Amino acid sequence: MLRLPNDGPATGAPLDDYLRGKGGAAALVAALAHVLPPLADRLAAGRLHGDPEAVVGLNDSGDKQKALDVAAHDHMVAVLAAAGVRKVLSEEAEEVIDLNLAGAFDVAIDPIDGSGSIGIGAPLGMLFSILPAAPEGFLRTGRAVVAAGYASFGHSCDFCFSLGDGVTIATFDRELGGFRIAREKVMLACETKSVAYNASNERHWPEGLQAWLCDMRAGKDGPRGKDFNMRWLGAAVGDLHRILLQGGVFLYPADRRKGYENGRLRLIYEAVPMAFLIEQAGGRATDGTAPILDRLPRQPHEHSPLIFGASGEVETIGRYLAAAQPKQG
Predict the structure, then answer these.
(1) pLDDT in tens, 68-83
(2) What's the Rg (C-alpha) of the chain?
(3) In degrees, to the nearest 5, what angle opens at C-alpha 89 toward C-alphas 85 and 95?
């Protein structure tokens, strides 16, 4: 590794030591961290051993499944089975997977987030949430979640998680062969000037969001009185990671296109873990009206709109949406 003039020995407690003895879902979080280095290495190898972008099937939404999607799913399910997990819900499997009937936890996963960017060097991710085993399975609100997190595969391999007592970020240390704690008690600023969304979809957005866009674009000369910057990485985990580190707000709302009327992200294994982390960091995450963690899913692969980040801006967006609703009575 290249050494910079001000570099010293790696700092930060090893993740395994940090989680040891915490109880609850901590051992399962550690097991999920151990899943990541082989995935990061395979991503880094690109096409040297084969094509990770090769289409091998379709998922429940009709999205193309790539070789890396399926391999990451199989890899994670094997680790979760060995860790004693009861059930797994994965984006890459139509049905809930039964593993250990006596297991104490159920785990929802998106094995590879942003797989449309496999092979081009853009950030990719993994998402998970952990729930205590219960008869309802995964059809519970996000308030039942006891731990959640993500991996960010970029120029570093980062693992962010919360056990319900704040947000912690660890970074993979190749010399150690494991993760070290890099940041603890991550908190979001209430306000922001940074937004992340796919601008090509603006024309399909509802009236309230169109009004928000108009006023935001007017910058300091408009009613908002400040200029905004746009940052859009095209992978939700990449934007989540950046927002937790630098602040901002992310929007993937419902819109008028067929198939997008209820949003496009999956509620249980995409929106919920992101919302859990954002709330733990002092931010807000909504569907434009209500908190994501209050939504009760009716089916495992249900879609949801998602707006998350700095609490002040998320609340502002909610007011614009509410103001455009027809008046009752």
Answers:
(1) 999 999 999 999 999 9
(2) 20
(3) 120
What is the domain class of 15-183 according to CATH? alpha beta
Cα torsion 96, 296, 211, 192: sign: negative
For helices 311-323 and 207-217, the axis angle rounded to 10 degrees is 130
How far apart are alpha carbons 128 and 275 in whole angstroms?
12
On whether the 194-323 domain is CATH 1.10.3720.10, my answer is no
Residues contacting residue 135 through CB under 8 Å, at least 6 positions apart: none
Alpha carbon distance 222, 127 (integer Å): 38
Q: Give the β-pairing of 124-132 and 147-153.
A: antiparallel
Q: How far apart are CA 221 and CA 240, in angstroms?
A: 29
Give the separation between CA 154 and CA 171, rounded to whole angstroms.
11
Q: Which residues contact 62 (CB under 8 A, 6 or more apart)?
A: none
Report the half-sphere exposure of 170 (CA within 13 A, side-chain side): 30
Tell whether the torsion through CA atoms of 69, 275, 272 and 131 is positive or negative: positive
The span from the CA of 280 to the CA of 276, in Å, is 6
CA distance 263 to 283: 21
Where are the domains positioned within the chain? 15-183, 194-323
Confidence of residue 28 (pLDDT cuts 50, 70, 90): very high
Angle at 28 between CA 247 and CA 237, to 5 degrees: 25
Residue-wise pLDDT for 277-314, tens only, equals: 999 999 999 999 999 999 999 999 999 999 999 999 99
Best CA proximity match to 34, nearest among 1, 69, 67, 82: 82
130: three-class secondary structure by DSSP? strand
Beta bridge partners, 126, equal 151
